[in-house]
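The material for today's practical consists of a large collection of protein records. A record pairs a protein's sequence with a compact description of its fold. Instead of coordinates, the fold is spelled out as a row of discrete tokens. We will come back to this pairing of sequence and fold again and again. Here is such a record, shown just as it appears in the course material.
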Amino acid sequence: MIIALDAMGGDFAPVSTVEGAIFAARESRHKILLVGSEKIIAEELLKQSKQYSFVSLDNIKIVNATEFVTMDEHPAKAIRQKKDSSLSVCARLVAEGKADAFVSMGNSGAAMSAALFYLKRIEGVLRPAISTAFPSVNGYCIIADMGANVDCVPEYLLQFGIMASLFCEKVTGVKNPRIGLVSIGEEPTKGNELTLAAFDLLRKAEINFIGNVEGGDIVKDKVDVAVCDGFVGNVILKFGEGLTEMMLKLVRKEVKQHPITWASLPFLWLAIRDLRKKVDYSESGGAPLLGVDGVCIIGHGKSNGKAVKNAILAGARAAEHNLAVEIKEAIARYNNKVM
């Protein structure tokens, strides 16, 4: 697979992006295109290749881009005006068939705008959805949408459920994934106008829809996919990140206050290490933008090299499954059924 990486995107770019590309190149045979300022990337690549004793750079190539999109720029305006930005070039490489996926840790709104402008929506898809893996007791739950669409209509939520169900099954390997609609109660009569109408649509779709779920059910492993509008999804994600950080700090604080527990820390280390890994966003790397006719992975702005590496690998996995075709067929089947 050929993965185009926005080497200028993210709070710690190009250090983190070049590092992530090196890590991915060492662990896979995928070809990685580092897109951005050729001079800056070449200098960073030379420095890090020596640091990591990386012998061969055969599967890493630099693609020059004269501009880049900052975090505070207006997404759509930046993509329209900066045709030679690293983000625009990444999306164009996929659209032209010169790359199988593109990955960015930069301005997420601009990444979505670039995907829509160059890749276009899959036929029949009303709105794309950012789908994030959120940790649960026994695995992960896919939240769709995580922030791409803050204002939704019921048909959007229906399609989020169909697309995320396919992603969960085909890419993450969960058979017959359980789909839940995030609401204020499990009863079908609970919710606002949006969720009440979306409930009826999801119930008629060819997915394993189990009904409404409350926010707490997401982490209890009651569903594999949680469907909601982007406003709710983003609040869940940010609250979860904050809660996780607080809990880890409290664990460290309380352990230090209890001498017996502190003395037992070497025996608890493996469990604590596994817990940190479970809730670490860098493990998943990035979130796929479902509904565009190509693969786009959007990562966290504070991503380190490990997160960038995992985002690259996630993009490769998504590209291997040709999910766009599956989504187009599933949306068409539903539309034919209700017509």
Summary: The chain has a mean pLDDT of 89. The first helix runs from residue 15 to 27.
